[in-house]
Amino acid sequence: MATTLKLPAILRSPTTLQYTIPKKPSSARPSYPRKFYPNDEAKATLSQPWLTTTDPLMPPYPHRAHTHFEEANHGLYGGATIQSGHKISDGRNKGKTLRKWYPNVRVEKLRSVALGVEMSIPTTARVMRTITKCGGLDEYLMGEKPARIKELGLLGWKLRWLVLKSRSVQERWRRERERLGLQGGEGSMHSVESTFAAAWNDTEGRAEILTKMGVSWDELREKRATWERHVKETLGWARGGKVGKVGKSRERKGMNTLDVHDPLTTRLPDYVEEEEPIQELPAVQEGFGIVEVVNEKGGMQRRGAKLVNKKTR
User: Fold this and answer.
1) What are the beta bridge partners of residue 99?
2) Is residue 142 within 8 Å of residue 134, measured between CB atoms?
3) Does the keyword Hydrolase apply (predicted)?
């Protein structure tokens, strides 16, 4: 009888850490005016559990979050931030005066056809114009150019992931793959809906996985050999040799992990149970935000929620 094992649920990943920001003491004079805070409709949208919960399997955002203009992390700002400069005056008050320009932000009602919801999101006028030209919010979020990815921000990146995982988009891609005769159709182990358990329990799928792992292992070994040759030529030490440092000699450990382990000896379960669905967090009554806030004492707290005593690791 095959051993029944269960893979542990993924709770944390680089993505969840990216959407966790340290809590800073509130300032009486923020770097941007209070009127740019979202209204009640935007707070209600950004406080929805399906938007505040971060999927650990979501790829991390390739760009950094806004640290000097944190308001942009909770809207579609298109990379807009505060501009600083001078106001040059003529006449009696001739001279230069420091001033700032704030982005033109409006709380717009945007409908996502893929998600089937209408959201009130703080959006700049330039991004709203781009959304209209693209033909809707979904098409704007699914843009593939690097400039589009960079201007999405944390909120846009999470909305993009939700749109790409929706049933309507997956069905559209499935029909496109079938029309082009590509792999990944319904019932195939290459399908995006298939799980690791289905691929591992299939004989052909397991052989293909091990073959790809072996190729990747060989590439890592080749890169390791190149790196060790470079270090040997520049620093003058061989793998497993000794190097003198300020009158002391210490042994440099070689990168023998690739020699000890091999993908063919990897112990994976013969059968993997389906993971239980993770319960959604209750709706936040007060506050808004798409990121978790870490208290200075190490506790985890969501915007508008009570502090949890459990410390983060």
Assistant:
1) 85
2) no
3) no
Domain that holds residue 212: 196-272
Query: How would you classify the pairing of strands 292-294 and 20-22?
Result: parallel
User: Does residue 151 lie in a domain region?
Assistant: yes
Is there a contact between 4 and 273 (Cβ–Cβ < 8 Å)?
Answer: yes
Band (126; pLDDT cuts 50, 70, 90): very high
Range of weakest confidence among 25-29, 42-46, 57-61, 100-104? 25-29
* pLDDT: which is higher, 111 or 39: 111
Tens-digit pLDDT profile for residues 211-264: 888 888 888 888 888 888 887 777 655 444 454 443 444 445 555 666 666 655
Residues 215 and 94 both lie in one domain: no
Lowest mean pLDDT among 39-53, 190-204, 254-268, 284-298: 284-298
Tell me how far apart the alpha carbons of residues 220 and 17 are, in angstroms, rounded to a whole number. Answer: 27
DSSP string, the chain: ---EE-PPPP---HHHHHTEEE-----SS-SS-GGGS--HHHHHHHT-HHHHSPPTTSPPPSSPPPSS-GGGGGSB-TT---EEEEEEE-GGG-EEEEEEE---EEEEEEEETTTTEEEEEEEEHHHHHHHHHHTSHHHHHT--SHHHHHHHHHHHHHHHHHHHTSHHHHHHHHHHHHHHT-S--TT-TTSTT--HHHHHHSHHHHHHHHHHHHHHHHHHHHHHHHHHHHHHHHH---TT-EEEETTEEEEPPP--HHHH--GGG----SEEPPPPPPPPPPPPSS---SSEEE-TTSEEEETTSPPEEEEP-
pTM (2 d.p.): 0.63
Does 177 fall in a domain?
no
* pLDDT cut 90: percent of the chain above it: 27
Is the pLDDT assigned to residue 302 strictly greater than 50?
no
